[in-house]
Amino acid sequence: MRRLALVGLALALALTGCATQPESAPTASADALSGEITVFAAASLTATFTELAADFEAAHPGTTVALNFAGSSDLVTQITEGAPADVFASADTKNMAKLTDAALNDGEPVEFATNVLDIAVPPGNPAGIETFADLAGPDVALVVCAPAVPCGAAAAAVAEAAGVALTPVSEESSVTDVLGKVTSGEADAGLVYVTDVIAAGDAVEGIEFRESGEAVNTYPIAALADSSAPEVARAFVAFVAGSAGQKVLRSAGFGAP
Amino acid sequence: MTYGGVPRWVAVVAAVGALFVLLPLVAMVTRVNWAEFVPLVTSESSVSALWLSLRTSLAATALCIVLGVPMAIVLARSRFPGQKVLRSLVLLPLVLPPVVGGIALLYTFGRRGLLGQSLDVLGITVAFSTTAVVIAQTFVALPFLVLSLEGALRTVGTRYEAVGATLGAGPTTVLRRITLPLVLPALVSGAVLSFARALGEFGATLTFAGSLQGTTRTLPLEIYLQRETSPDTAVALSLVLVVVAVVVVGLAHQTAAGTYLRGRVTP
Question: What is the CATH number of domain B35-257?
Answer without folding.
Answer: 1.10.3720.10
